[in-house]
Design a protein that fits this description.
Length: about 140
């Protein structure tokens, strides 16, 4: 449901006034209130959450299961599950997401690309996937 989100516990923080030059890989959750010049990627066996705070700035790609942006991002964003753009969010780059929540005032300069889940094909169906030419011969 939109508006009802399970809060996440922040495990790691890049604080205000701190700058990281290079790619960041994290497990669990990460909050960025400083600046990162590089890609930020969540990985691991458990869901990942990335929060870009109001003072946070990232120049690079973002990738996590849940991405919350309140600051500025210059680069593509991939949220495997939920992308939340708060009122102060400024994103310059293409955005891919499964579910999007965007507050009034958030700005995206790029393409919005929803990641649709393909419909499930019933396991019992063994019919050919390509269309066939109609024939007058009966099928037995």
């Amino acid at each position: 449901m939109i508006g009802i989100k399970k809060p996440f516990t922040v495990r790691s923080v890049i604080g205000a006034g701190m700058q990281v030059n290079g790619d960041c890989v994290f497990e669990g959750s990460l909050e960025i209130d400083g600046a990162v010049l590089g890609d930020v990627t969540g990985q691991g066996d458990h869901p990942t959450a990335l929060m870009i705070g109001e003072s946070g700035r990232v120049t690079g790609a973002l990738r996590a299961d849940r991405v919350v942006i309140a600051g500025a991002v210059a680069g593509p964003v991939l949220a495997h599950e939920l992308l939340e753009l708060r009122a102060g969010a400024r994103v310059q780059g293409d955005v891919r997401y499964k579910t999007l929540e965007m507050q009034q005032g958030a700005v995206i300069a790029g393409q919005l690309q929803p990641q649709m889940t393909p419909p499930a094909v019933p396991a019992a169906s063994k019919e050919p996937t390509e269309p066939t030419e109609p024939t007058l011969e009966p099928k037995f």
